[in-house]
Amino acid sequence: MAGMSEDVGTEGYLSQMQTNFFGPLNVTNAFLPHMRGRRDGRIVFIGSRSSWKAHIPMYGPYAASKAALNAAAEALSAELVPFNVRVISILPGALRTSNWTNMTLLPSSPSSSLSSVREAYATTRDASIAHMSTLHGKQKGDPALAAEAIVDVVRGEGSAAGRAWPEMLVLGEDAELDIKEKCRSVEVNLEEWKDVTKGIAFEG
């Protein structure tokens, strides 16, 4: 799903959260008691590199839902250690699937003024939609190879044989580059604002 944040409103964000965040959590909570009972299990959450790259117009609802899923995965990973249940968040880049042809553009929020909001964002929105239309069929990621990598990690076989369990698995060079760029920008921000960051401590 995609849409300008003000245009889709909280209703649009909630719609995306229901699918990408609450949906996986509800499924997880349904089978988690069985995994805890047998003290063994593997939970795989399909996140996205968009959770590290949310600064693209119309990706807000999607990126936010995937960022929330990443955070929940981290929390569950820590909570389930005593039960030998492992959690992994998969962060794929662009995979050559049919997702772009099936992309849903979120409608305007009922609480927003359709005409004024749409008009205000028309240029950015149209440019974003035009860009999205060029992406299908050009993704460099092979979904079959991505699935194979995930299965290897879950089973501890193939490329994952003899390696420690990763709480995060990035798939695709594009995803790797985006995440590295985000990390660099965070480091720059911390360095530039370190005086303010450290300046809120009590004296003495």
UniProtKB/TrEMBL annotation:
Keywords assigned: Oxidoreductase
Superkingdom assignment: Eukaryota
Pfam family for this entry, one: adh_short
Record-linked Gene3D superfamilies: NAD(P)-binding Rossmann-like Domain
Xref: InterPro entries: NAD(P)-bd_dom_sf (IPR036291), SDR_fam (IPR002347), SDR_oxidoreductase (IPR051911)
GO molecular function: oxidoreductase activity
Family as reported in the entry's similarity comment: Belongs to the short-chain dehydrogenases/reductases (SDR) family.
Family matches, as PANTHER family: SHORT CHAIN DEHYDROGENASE, SHORT-CHAIN DEHYDROGENASE_REDUCTASE FAMILY PROTEIN
Name of the featured protein: NAD(P)-binding protein
Organism, as annotated: Rickenella mellea
